Every structure is written in C-alpha cells, then in structure tokens.
Amino acid sequence: MASCFTAMFGPDKAVFPDFLRPDVRQWWGDLHKSLTDSGVAGFCNDMNDPAFSDRPLGDPDHQIGCPPDAPQGGQGDKETRRQGDKETRGQGENFIPSDRTTHAEVHNLYGLMMAKACAEGLERLRPNQRSFVLTRSGYAGVQRWSSVWMGDNQSLWDHLEMSLPMLCNMGLSGVAFVGSDIGGFAGNATAELFARWMQVGMLYPLMRGHSAMTTARHEPWVFGDRVERICREYINLRYQLLPYIYTLFWEAATTGAPILRPLLYHFPDDLKTYTISDQVLLGPSLMAAPIYRPGIEHRAVYLPAGTWYDWWSGASYEGPTHILAHAPLERMPLYVRAGAIIPMTPVIQYTDERPIDQLTLCIWSGRGEWTLYEDDGHTFEYKNGTWATTAYKVSTDGQKTIFEIAARQGNWTLPSREVIVQLVGIGEQRFQDDGTARRLSF
Amino acid sequence: MPQYFGQLPTTDQPWSTLGAVQAIQRGDRTVSFKCGDSSVAISVLASNLIRVRMAPNGEFMPRRSWAVTIDDLEWAVVPFEVGETAEVVEITTEQLRVQIQRDRPSISCFDKANRPFAADADMGMGWRTGAVAGWKKIATDEHFYGFGERTGLLDKLSYRLTNWTADALDYGSLTNEMYQAIPFFIALHPQVGYGIFFNTTFWSQFDIGADQPGVWRMETRGNELDYYIIYGPEPANIVRTYTQLTGRMPLPPRWALGYHQCRWSYESETVVRLLAREFRDRSIPCDVIHLDIDYMRGYRVFTWSPKRFPNPGKLISDLAQDGFKTVTIIDPGVKYEPEADYHVFDEGVEHDYFVRKADGKLFHGYVWA
Known about the structure:
Helix content of chain A: 25-40%
Helix content of chain B: 10-25%
Structural class of chain B: mainly beta
Largest interface: A-B, 164 and 142 residues
CATH topology of the largest domain in chain B: Immunoglobulin-like
Distance between the termini of chain B: 25 Å
Shape of chain B: elongated
Mean pLDDT of chain B: 94
Largest sheet of chain B: 8 strands, antiparallel
Strand order of the largest sheet of chain A: 11-12-13-16-14-15
Number of helices of chain B: 4
Oligomer: heterodimer
Distance between the termini of chain A: 64 Å
Strand order of the largest sheet of chain B: 2-3-4-5-20-17-16-13
Strand content of chain B: 25-35%
Number of strands of chain A: 24
Radius of gyration of chain B: 26 Å
C-alpha cells in the first residue's frame, strides 16, 4: 500500500471547473454521459468543498487555496467575461455585472454548483429515470440538487453518537436526505461498534456503509455470525419500513419536513426535549433511543407527553416520564406513539425484487392520522398525477379502536395486493386492496 | 486543527452603527428607512416572512440567484399596516409585528400575544472595513438548532459557528468549518420559535452567546447585511417557509432509500462481483454499490480504468440483473495533463472552463494524482 499512497497523495496538479458558469455546468453535466451510457445510475460528488487548500496532505509547504480575488461566474465568452472584470475593477466593489464575481463571494457555492451541474446533466441524460445525486459540500438550498453525507467520519463511538444530532441539524436546515457513513469511514470499527452503528444507520435517510483505504473491511458479514445476524435484522427492518420512509421522502419533497427529527420538532413546548441529542424520531411516529457506548445494555429514555408503546414488547407507558430501557446488543430501543400508523412490507432483497403483494398497516390504539404516498418509484410520471395517496385515521370508540381508510386518491394503479391491518398486540383484519373507503373496528 | 485557543478574541477595528431614521418610504412590500448615509429596507414577503437589509453606504447589491429561489417580487403581496409614533415605526402583518426604533435604529419582532423575538441587542446593526454584522438578544430558555452540518450535540447555544466550506478531514467535536455551509438556524423557546436565514455566500459567522452571554451575532465579509426572519412558532412551519425560500428536494428514486455499500475502494470488477454475490448469498438486502476513485484511469475524472474495469457496461448490467444500482464517485479536480489526449482537460482548456487567478493564469491545486 505504501507505493499506492505515494501515488495517491503525490503532488500532481489538477485544475478546477468554474461551476458558477452555466456553460461550464452544461459541459460538465454532459460529461456524465460516458458513465450513464455504461449504466451508472447515480453520482457521488466528492472533494468539492473544494478540497485543495489541504492538499497535498502532510505537505503544508505546497498547500494552496484558491485566491479570494480569482474571478468566477458570469456569462458569455472569454472576452465578455474579461470585459466584465475590467468594469468590475473600474466601478468599485459594488458593481458586479450579472453573476461575475470573485472566489471570495462564491467559495461556499462550489459544491452546490457542482451538484447542480450533475443533477441537471442527469435530467438530460436520463430523462425518464430519477437519478441519485450525493454531494459532500453544499450551501443553503443544496437540497434542490442533491443528497448529502457527513464526509469523512471516523470509526469512533463519539462519531456514532454525534451522527444523529448532526443529521437532525441538517434536516432542520432544509436538507432532509442525509446520512453518515455506517461503521465510520476512517479507522477500524469493532464488532460491537459496527452492530450498534448498523442499528442507528437504519434510521439515516441515506443508509450507506463505507470505509477507507488501509482500514479493515466493514461489510455486514466481516464481524462474525452474531453481528451479521444483527445487521441482517436491522437492514431487513429498514426494507420492511420502506413504504413509511418513502412517504417521509414525499413529505420532505412537498413541505421540506425533515425525515429524521429531533424530539423538539414535535414537542416544541416541552423544554425537556430541547437538549435531547440521543433520541430521535424517524417521521412523526417512530422514536429510537440507541446505544452509543461499548458494554452498555441499559439506558434512560425520555418519553414526552402521551402514551408510548415499546416497539419490541408492546409494553405501554404514559409520558412525560423517564424509563430505563434494556438494550442487549441485539436491541435498539424503539417506541411508537399512541395512534401511530406505520405501513410495512415483507422483507425483500432489493427494492425492485418483486411487486409488493402484501401491505401490513401496523396501528397502535389512540388518536392519529397519516397519509401513505405511493408511485412507481422510478420515473417522473408522478409529476403528471400518476401517484396514489391513502389517508388513514385511528380513533377510539369506548373500548373499541376504529381504523378508517379513505378512498385512494391519484391516478397510479397499484399492483394487486393484500392489506393486513394489525392492531399491534390485539388482532388483525385482512382484505384485498381495492382502494375503496373502509371502516374497521377492533 | 480547531482548538479553543485558536478562537480567542483579537483586537479589531470598532464597529460603526446607524444614525437616526431621517426618512421613511413605503412600497408594496417594502418599507425603506434612510439613516444618514445608510439605508435599511424591511420587506414583508409573507405574513410570517420578513427580509431585512442594511447597506452602510446606502446602495443595495444586485440580486443574487444562487440560494434564494424566489425573488422578492415573486411573492404575492400580503397586507400589512405601517404605524408611526414619535419613537417607533411599526409594521404589522397577520402573524407578527416588527418595530423599528427611530433614534438608534434597531429592530424587534413580536407575536400576536406580544411576546418578543429576534429583538436587536444594543449594538443593533453595524459595519467596519470589509464586514457587516447584526446583534440580537437571546431570550430566557432560548435554544438554537440547524446551522447546517455541525459536529457535537444538538443545541448550539454558546457556540461560535463559521460558514465556510472546507475539507473537514479528521473532524471532531471542536471542528468549526465543515463541508457544508448553511447560514440558517432555528431559535426556540416555549411558545415562540423563529428562523434566521443569513443571505450571504461570503464568509460568515454566527456567535450564539459565546462572546457575550445573552446576545447572538451574525457577521459576514460582504457589503451589506441581508437576512430573513421566519416566524413559526413551530419548527415545522419554520422549515416549511425556509424551504419555500431556498427550495426542496426532488423525489429520489425509491432504490436510493435502500442500503448502499461503499468502500475506498472496491478496486476491480472481480472484487465488485464478489461483493454483490456475498449480499445475495447471505440474504442481506442491498440496492446500491458505490465505486470510489479507483474505477478511474489514474484518477482522471470521467474515465474507466481499462485494466481493472475492462467492460463496465457488462459489469453494471450484470449487477442490475441481480438488483444492484451502480453509483460512481466524481471529483471536481481535473488532472492537469496537457498534450496527453485527456479529453476533459483538453476541452476545459479550449473553452476556458477552469478557474483562473486574477492575473489570468490557470489556478491549480493538488488533489488525487
């Protein structure tokens, strides 16, 4: 690996496209054709912070940042832009023709504009298929073009712990599609750290495992049978929850709502939630209280006002209260709110493995409403009305729990499927899904 | 490395502040204030969305389209009332009231129950060579969230947070400059919540009570102070309005919500095929395999290594048969390689696509080599 490192970090020069310019973005976007023609379906935009002021690594004498007065942006040919520079200098700092400016003003935009070039290129190159765009750097509004990951994290317990507040703060900053690399990028995860991280990773809007060169491998099966079983169970759970998570993505796309939320998002008048960094909500209904330290099998959990149910045992609690949760390595404590409606599907090995012929609506007694969003998951037909939403409502009538299903809205025709409504721990009812309104009583 | 002692205060030029309000002008959306040589403009864009601008020299900068998707003029005009007394000017919308002091211009907001929020501190707004800033009060029990990509825990009360994108290699809980720079935050105390979007792409910084307990500061190395106040009070309403202003994400493909597996690097076709097989043999769901920089020929962006990935089309289509999507990494740095028939470099030079320095010479840095 030594020779590889030398080559990797050797001081060869690179030049940097000015993504602020529309003509440059057009060119760069079109360059992706060489990869999309081979079938590449998504792109990860790295090093676009832009990462040159710390390179070559470990060689500070040769490190250079982009000078703040380097001209950037503007439109038109070389001469027009240069003319713009002269006018800018001639007219004082405040005169800036079109978007011609200097690096000082647009340094923060470098990653966003690269992601925009990529996303717009993919719209041209894959006009009928949605693409996946990921970026490391960005500025306000980056969510329009790309998802974001938290860069080069480390295989440390405190990096696992801070991943959730980091992602929650990103979500509150308008960027809902975010993730931290499971297992940590730099360094070697222990088996225990990796198992806990995969549990937490199930909650990340972007669920990605990654590891750096010269570190040990970090795939779900490299830490032995026990950890492999844990990874399988939590990745399975992620896939079972996809109808719920996909609806959260739709909500983010239409209202900006975060997918992963701190407790204060839903309980802004409860001061106790203001400093809780170690519990999160995936959407409105599912709360996780993960473990962030080795050897720990118990932890305190805060349950805000209302009734809460333990996801695993079904036990119920009246909030506001603190409880002590038991969390052996196989368990990430999970809770749902009374009145929660969580749609689940059978385990699949990948999202398009087969049409989903069974939808289980897990409900918990109480009062709650929730709307499921569905579409083909691939194309842009949803923009033409080819989608389906179904509104659900849980309520109580004396000792009975009532579940109401409104008639399905939208023009998407779903594959034939069975619906199982499961009042968790009590009973279930089944019917063939025909999109009509129903009222069930438990 | 970011260390506590790197952040001790330094001696700086004093701030200049605004003179008394001399003239007021009301437009459809904006109330403008002339204060000596300086100008302040307060625009009502929605009943819960106020834009504040202050130009020390009286001249506002041209509009920048880079972050805010909706120009002021594209917002539907909403009703608001302007009231004047000898001491204050008040702008009242359906959801809030903005009050401006006349003698030492400062801005405070109040909700319908008269609870103050986003109220200027004593300094109000100020400027000095190369920088502008605003100061506001931190209310009792007020806590602060958002700020883009931040390490550490959730609440940023007592932190100083810089907005300047950087390769945050080896980051930890003290790291300040991260990969993302999003000058937006949410301030929350019971019954009251608001967001601040600091509309500047220049270097900027929030100081949330680190310099002075009870006061937060926003500062940028730009020419004017420009920020949006978004009233909630619920965080959900604040994020909804903020994303109306800066945009929302498109719906991604459903497969992107599945499990992704990446490593630097799965360095050859053989390794990638074994990886994919392993997932299916072990019945561990996975949708996406990422190829890191080693798929390229010598780290040249938009190329394939002919040795290690001799037939990428076949590989990717075989992976697709097994239900895997392929994602590749892209770096912005284009290898500087004249007369080597590297099309990306050649085209970029031919059309002058690369960043140049002020003297016209190509800027170059070092990335992968």
